Automatic annotation (TrEMBL):
Organism superkingdom: Eukaryota
Name of the protein described by the UniProt record: ABC transporter domain-containing protein
Membrane topology category: Multi-pass membrane protein
Organism this protein belongs to: Coptotermes formosanus (Formosan subterranean termite)
Keyword tags: ATP-binding, Membrane, Nucleotide-binding, Transmembrane, Transmembrane helix, Transport
Length: 723
């Protein structure tokens, strides 16, 4: 076998490798160094022989293989200082082993009409319950892609086989038993830790547990994850490590047997990273399947993982125990220097001038079909030597595992009652709606900065517009100035409510993706909740704006006329919000800020068309104007001021008694707004609101259920290229 020679590394790049073994920390290296000491006086652990486990060729059942695994393998690396707490009040779940074979994923080449680029190239592997697995690799190796595929987050363009407990994975069932914690610490703001946990428990557990049982489950999770001291702290005030732990706690509340984490150590210091990995290891030792991606761990962190799965150039170059990486590299001619971090070394040996090592290592491991496991005989010998220290830990660990693993491990996933329930979610749509609505109202009430900005914005704009059109509401000499006032009100409600979702919705979608994908609630309940939650503030601040501007511009002081004016203005804002939700659901903030004005500018031009010669508007133009909801809004606002049998206006300050537009009906005729009613225009606006929000719902649903990244822009660019 031809190999690429490894370089000799300078001594200045020495890193201690700490191996945690039943509470004894020692340094380890890839060479047979027994009894040697490091610079800090730490003993080296002897090299542990490994065995090749060809699980694919043998054809043995995945569940049987996992069940036959020596229990000592789980406990020999348990940190003695970590307290194992049994989560006795949590719902019981089946254990899940994940197996995949010949997994391939490709995407279209950007900027090209034909051809696809392979991200994953027929990789195989197996992740067991009770183990903490780390997916390693350089940037662009396919780490996050592999985990997204296994979690069901990505499905298009994927070929190969994925099994759970030896059976083909049923994605709908699997999603109920797994949770995906994304790299960004996306947590609902303006809630305390306790409130966030209670909302998560109510959504994810439903009637599965009583209120007291939910409270006990929350207490156990907060205690286990060390969040009791900050239970009354707002989420936006938490530290980076606390936010990571809270992200895990929110998903752990329903005790999922499978947890995926994308770069859980990003942004943490070295102490917080070790705490995070130790926590994940603890959760795995209780019988869960914990899979995480990690970019480049330190030596001490690397040894905490039960299994590592290393990717490079879309190939699997290693799968097995973290302690067996150094012996495996030695078998292919790559000798890791003493005191050197194996994780750093393997990443250096598969990039740049050493890229040929990828093919060698991938062939040796059969692209993931082989697994380098610890030799059970050696594990048993080492366990006997430390039997006194391990008996208590083994007993605790088995008790922990029993809390999640069923007595009969085989086919647990397929026989679980949890996944065969008739309803897709633990709670009904109405329960989800009420819980989400209460959460949204609580967040709005606590967001004092946003409330203050909205109050200032509406008051300042009302005073500004009212001051510009001061006391013109009853002046027959300047009726078109009052029409400009109506147009200004229309534009204010348009801009205010269309840009808010354009700027905020893309961020909200990121949070929605996490909660929706982890089966917290359905999209219908969420969409109804955000629709209803925005109404009170829109109505309150909109009425305040209308009141101030209405009085300053000296409009008729008639309660019924003012109510029509407010209703028409708020209706425009409601439709505009739906318009903004469509843009925000499809585009990013940057692209949406461009698309939103470009989309309503033609509608605004159609709304103002025909002023002064309304009777001369052609039929075709009337049809186009009818497609603009802003036209209905302008007609409704203007009709609320000049319609409803308004008496003749006064010619204020005029030396002549005649004013051409003294009769309000004459003005409405010249504006092309005759024979219309305010109620009819508001009903038309309501129809537009329903249509726009339905389209926004479809766009949001499409974005959540497929790989969506500005596909509309890509499609337009493709059409332009063909032209």
């Amino acid at each position: 076998m031809s190999t690429t020679k490894a370089p000799t590394h300078p001594a200045s790049k020495v890193t201690d490798i700490v191996v945690i073994d039943a509470g004894n920390e020692s340094s380890a290296s890839g060479d047979n160094t027994k009894g040697q000491t490091s610079r800090d006086g730490l003993q080296f652990q002897e090299e542990i022989p490994y065995v090749d486990e060809d699980w694919d060729a043998g054809g043995e059942d995945v569940c049987e293989t996992a069940d036959r695994r020596p229990r000592e393998q789980l406990v020999t690396r348990i940190p003695a200082k970590v307290e194992l707490k049994t989560l006795t009040h949590m719902a019981k779940r089946p254990a899940v082993d994940i197996e995949f074979q010949d997994l391939t994923y490709s995407v279209r080449n950007p900027g090209r009409r034909t051809g696809r680029r392979a991200i994953l190239k027929a990789v195989s592997g197996k992740f067991r319950a009770g183990e903490l697995t780390a997916i390693l690799g350089p940037s662009g190796a396919g780490k996050s892609t592999l985990m997204n595929i296994l979690a069901g987050y990505v499905s298009a363009g994927v070929s190969g086989t994925i099994k759970t407990n030896g059976h083909p994975r049923q994605l709908k069932l699997f999603s109920k038993l797994s949770s995906y914690i994304m790299q960004d610490d996306l947590i609902q703001p303006f809630l305390t830790v306790q409130e966030g946990m209670e909302i998560a428990a109510n959504l994810k557990l439903g009637d599965e547990l009583t209120s007291s049982e939910k409270h006990l489950a929350i207490e156990e999770v907060l205690t286990t994850l060390g969040l009791v001291s900050c239970r009354n702290t707002r989420t936006e005030c938490l530290s980076g490590g606390q936010r990571k732990r809270l992200s895990v706690a929110l998903e752990l509340v329903n005790n999922p047997p499978v947890i995926f984490l994308d770069e859980p150590t990003t942004g943490l210091d070295i102490v917080a990273i070790k705490q995070c990995i130790s926590l994940l290891k603890l959760l795995a030792q209780q019988g869960r399947t914990i899979i995480c991606t990690i970019h480049q761990p330190t030596a001490s962190h690397f040894q905490l993982f039960d299994q590592v799965y290393i990717l490079a150039k879309g190939h699997c170059i290693y799968q097995g125990a973290s302690q067996q990486l150094v012996p495996f590299m030695s078998s292919v001619g790559l000798h890791c220097p003493k005191y050197y971090n194996p994780a750093d070394y393997v990443l250096e040996m598969i990039q740049g001038e050493y890229v040929e090592n990828v093919k060698i290592m991938s062939a040796e491991i059969q692209n993931g079909k082989l697994s380098k496991k610890l030799d059970p005989v050696v594990i048993a010998e080492r366990s006997v030597a430390n039997s006194d220290g391990l008996k208590a830990v083994t007993k605790i660990c088995r008790k922990e595992t029993a809390a999640i693993m069923p007595a009969v491990f085989s086919h647990a996933l397929m026989d679980s009652k949890d996944v065969n329930k008739e309803h897709e979610f633990p709670t009904s749509c109405f329960q989800q709606f009420s819980i989400l609505l209460r959460r949204l109202f609580l967040q709005q009430r606590r967001n004092c900065v946003s409330l203050g900005i909205q109050l200032f914005h509406h008051l300042f704009s009302a005073v500004l517009i009212g001051g510009i059109f001061l006391q013109i509401g009853n002046d027959a000499r300047r009726p078109f100035a009052n029409v400009k006032f109506c147009l200004s009100v229309l534009v204010f409600f348009l801009y205010t409510h269309i840009m808010t979702p354009v700027l905020l919705f893309p961020t909200a979608i990121k949070l929605l993706k996490r909660e929706y994908f982890n089966r917290w609630y359905g999209l219908k309940a969420y969409y109804m909740a955000i629709t209803v939650a925005s109404m009170p503030s829109m109505l309150l601040f909109g009425t305040l704006f209308c009141l101030v501007s209405y009085i300053l511009s000296s409009q008729p002081l008639e309660p019924s006329r003012f109510i029509w004016f407010c209703a028409a203005s708020v209706a425009v804002g409601f439709v505009s919000e739906g318009h903004g939700m469509i843009v925000g659901s499809i585009f990013s903030v940057m692209n949406g800020s461009i698309v939103a004005p470009a989309s309503f500018s033609p509608l605004l031009a159609l709304a103002a068309y025909g002023m002064g010669h309304g009777e001369a508007i052609e039929g075709s133009m009337s049809f186009l104007m009818g497609l603009s909801y802003l036209r209905y809004g302008l007609v409704a606002i203007t009709d609320s001021l000049y319609g409803h049998n308004r008496p003749h206006l006064s010619c204020l300050g005029s030396d002549f008694e005649y004013c051409h537009y003294k009769d309000p009906n004459l003005l409405l005729r010249d504006l092309g707004m005759a024979d219309t009613t305010t109620l009819g225009q508001i009903l038309a606006l309501f129809a537009f609101a329903v249509l726009y929000r339905f389209v926004a719902y479809l766009a949001l649903r499409y974005r959540l259920t497929s790989e969506f990244s500005n596909q509309v822009l890509n499609y337009i660019a493709k059409i332009l290229r063909h032209k």
